[in-house]
Design a protein that fits this description.
The complex is a heterodimer.
Chain A lengths: L3 E10 L2 E11 L4 E5 L6 H9 L6 E6 L2 E2 L5 H4 L1 E4 L11 H11 L4 H14 L15 H13 L5 E5 L7 H18 L2 E6 L2 H7 L2 E6 L2 E6 L1 H6 L4 H6 L6 E8 L2 E4 L4 E3 L11 E6 L4 E2 L7 E11 L4 E7 L2 E7 L10 E6 L5 E4 L12
Parallel strand pairs in A: 3-8, 3-9, 6-7, 7-8
Antiparallel strand pairs in A: 1-2, 1-4, 4-5, 9-10, 11-12, 11-14, 12-13, 14-20, 15-19, 16-17, 16-19, 17-18
Chain B lengths: L10 H26 L2 H4 L14 H7 L8 H33 L5 H10 L5 H15 L5 H26 L3 H9 L3 H30 L2 H6 L8 H7 L8 H21 L1 H9 L6
Helix pairs in contact in B: 1-12, 3-12, 4-7, 4-9, 4-11, 7-9, 8-9, 9-13, 11-12
Classes of the chains: A alpha+beta, B mainly alpha.
Chain lengths: 358, 283
């Protein structure tokens, strides 16, 4: 068992409102990712769940029971810190054993549990070392082992992979997913890396300035962003946003272009809108009737693909193209738009027009 | 680093350092010499630097009274040990947890509180000794070891809080967070995980507190009068008041008075250096 429910968490540090009514519902056994830029309140949310942060308002329920006033120890959660927070004077073994010692397990149980978790994480040969004698990746594994050595209600992870180099990060991503599957435990995982979020999560909550913007599966937040901010935060290269308005059966751009109005658009004529199109839904090859005239602004070759920057008036479109594409800046070209996969946002509120039905 | 490369000092440096050393060390040397001279050599003109007969009589006089038995000076030394020791322990026991609290917890008007604590040190003892004397007379703490212990503790607690807060700030709070998630209470987390990392800082702070209490003169001379309670600084000063001054005894008792602090600082020197340079090194 391990459901975590946070309701209306609010917390301010001086004048900064770190959390402003954060509500999360983490189902038992899920890999729940809290994604957001730095300063969004991700870590504060996690610390509030852990009981390390005193809340101004809101409640935390664990397994359906109100745990808002409980001490961290009483909550029966395990946490991996971004800085790892390994005890410097203690060996890796003592670090991993610490949660069991705190809970007064017998030496036999402790030895067995440490052995089990250290072979799971391949750190058997590091157990007698102190944190100062470990590399970043090894410290990360020891920190993970300290959490995994017992079976808490849920595991809380605060950007555990951020301090690792890219190769190790990709490896650990796979490994963490594997561990999650094999334990079937609840993970609440905080990150600012959308690739981590999209590749590991069952559910993603996107946080900005202490507010939850959207909760959903990775596909949902990518395919159906609730607002303009989520659309531009998730996805790389970022989504292109063009100012426009609906007029009859056309969408007319602020820069003078015009496109057929998508069938699903419900906006009344004249309302200020933003058309959002992802790089993969744009093409520099002719296909279909919907197209925008522009000029080549720059090329970003990325190996497996090239991102073409196209200037339409004063706005830049990011277009995904074959790696073989060539061109010179200033060259005129036409960008095809897959309007069935495009998004429309209200320019004032930023909310998606399709959030309800589509 | 560059130390080995710069072993060879310039002549000027050597001269300046020598002058400095002579100026700083001569009084100490003279004190030690005087304590070892016979009385007629102490007053000899011209002064004798090397060719005098060494005697330990003055040191005997420090501890043994002329009629046999313990001297009043030795009682004062014992009083000093008790007063300085107890007040240092008290200041550390009270100050370290307070420093931890000020470092870790969000408190209302924390900066104002800390400033208030510091402000109690703004006034030199001479300024506050009269009101303290009057208050002590009311509550019957005049001429008692407890009175001195309390006032020294009160002076050392602010110092301990300020100095220790710096050391606690250096220890990441996440060790305690991690320990609490491991299942420890907040106090256990402090005691088992943070406190051991503070030992160098505590040693450095305690040495400074001890030196203050050990050397303190103004409160001691105003608040105590009887030989049974008096600490060493006023007792030694009292040797200089009469018609004749036994300089040999004054020098010998001064040497005995200076030694414990030197020895103590030497014993904890590793912690002292670690404590003073802590924070200079990035973790």
């Amino acid at each position: 068992m391990g459901t975590v429910t946070a309701h209306g968490l609010s917390k301010s540090f001086g004048k900064v409102q770190a959390l402003d009514g954060v509500t999360l519902d983490v189902p038992d056994g899920s890999f729940f990712v809290v994604l957001g830029p730095s300063g969004a309140g991700k870590t504060t949310t996690l610390r509030a769940i852990a009981g390390l942060e005193k809340l101004d308002a809101g409640s935390v329920h664990l397994d359906g029971r109100d745990a808002t006033g409980d001490t961290p120890a009483a909550r029966d959660l395990a946490m991996v810190f971004q800085s790892y927070a390994l005890y410097p004077r203690r060996t890796a073994y003592e670090n991993i054993a610490s949660p069991l010692r705190a809970r007064r397990c017998s030496p036999g149980e402790i030895a067995a549990a440490v052995e089990r978790v250290s072979s799971l994480l391949h750190i058997d040969r590091l157990l007698q070392r102190r944190p100062a004698q470990l590399s970043g990746g090894e410290m990360q594994r020891v920190a993970l082992a300290r959490a995994l050595v017992r079976s808490p209600r849920a595991f809380l992870m605060d950007e555990p992979l951020t301090n690792l180099d890219l190769k190790l990060r990709v490896e650990m991503r796979t490994e963490l997913t594997r561990i999650h599957r094999s334990l079937g435990a609840t993970f609440v995982y905080v990150t600012n890396d959308q690739v981590e979020a999209l590749s590991m999560a069952d559910q993603v909550a996107i946080l900005k300035e202490g507010r939850v913007q959207q909760v959903g599966t990775p596909t949902e937040v990518y395919e159906r962003p609730a607002n303009q901010w989520v659309a531009s935060f998730v996805g790389s290269p970022p989504i292109s946003l063009l100012a426009c308005r609906a007029e009859g059966d056309r969408l007319v751009g602020a820069e003078g272009w015009s496109l057929p109005r998508p069938r699903w658009t419900t906006a009344e004529d004249g309302r200020s809108l933003l058309l959002g199109v992802r790089a993969e839904d744009l093409s520099v090859e002719q296909r279909g009737a919907a197209s925008l005239p522009g000029e080549l602004y720059g090329l970003e070759p990325l190996g497996d693909r090239t991102v073409v920057d196209v200037r339409v008036g004063t706005e830049i479109l990011k277009v995904k193209a074959r790696p073989t594409v060539t061109g010179t800046p200033g060259e005129r070209l036409v960008v095809s738009v897959d309007l069935d996969r495009a998004h429309l946002f209200d320019a004032g509120t930023g909310l998606s027009l399709a959030a309800a039905g589509r | 680093m560059a130390v080995s490369a710069r072993r060879g000092r310039s002549a000027l440096e050597i001269v300046l350092l020598t002058v400095l050393a002579v100026v700083m060390l001569f009084p100490v040397l003279w004190m030690i010499e005087t304590s070892l001279k016979e009385n007629r050599d102490v007053y000899a003109v011209p002064a004798k630097f090397l060719d005098f007969k060494i005697t330990l009589d003055h040191y005997r006089d420090v501890f043994v009274s002329s009629g046999g038995g313990r001297s009043t000076l030795s009682t004062s030394f014992l009083n000093s040990v008790i007063v300085a020791g107890v007040s240092t322990v008290l200041a550390t026991v009270l100050g370290v947890p307070a420093a931890w609290a000020y470092s870790r917890f969000a408190l209302k008007a924390k900066k104002d509180q800390l400033f208030f604590i510091l402000s109690t040190r703004f006034m030199p003892p001479v300024v506050v000794v009269i009101p303290i004397f009057l208050m002590y007379r009311q509550v019957g703490l005049i001429d008692s070891a407890l009175g001195l212990i309390l006032i020294y503790t009160a002076f050392n607690v602010p110092f301990t809080i300020w100095m220790m807060k710096g050391f606690v700030d250096e220890v990441p709070a996440e060790y305690e967070d991690a320990a609490m998630l491991d299942g420890y209470t907040r106090l256990q987390a402090f005691r088992k995980f943070t406190l051991p990392l503070l030992v160098p800082g505590i040693a450095a702070t305690a040495v400074f507190a001890l030196i203050f209490s050990w050397n303190e003169f103004v409160f001691a001379i105003f608040l105590t009068s009887s030989d049974d309670v008096r600490t060493a600084p006023p007792a030694i000063a009292g040797l200089i008041g009469g018609t004749t001054v036994d300089w040999g005894l004054v020098a010998a008792s001064s040497v005995v008075f200076a030694l414990p602090v030197l020895v103590f600082a030497y014993l904890v020197r590793k912690h002292l250096v670690a404590g003073v340079t802590l924070g200079a090194v990035r973790r």
